[in-house]
Design goal:
Length: 69
């Protein structure tokens, strides 16, 4: 992913629907650990676009409609 993303200019990223920045490995690892260890989150889906804060898909939202993407 990084080899595709890094050479793109900010305008090219926008045109191609690529994020303006990438999440780093520590951010992803922390989210995975939390999802795996917090029993209240079992079965939940986390969506995290780099431009936004991480959000859980509301129960019953089949098409991610509540996230507005």
């Amino acid at each position: 992913m990084r080899t595709y993303w890094e050479p793109l200019t900010p305008e090219e990223r926008k045109q191609r629907g690529a994020p303006s920045r990438l999440l780093d490995l520590a951010q992803v690892a922390d989210a995975v650990v939390r999802l795996a260890t917090d029993e209240s989150l079992h079965g939940r889906v986390l969506v995290w676009w780099p431009e936004d804060e991480p959000r859980l898909i509301p129960w019953g939202d089949v098409g991610y409609a509540a996230l507005g993407r």
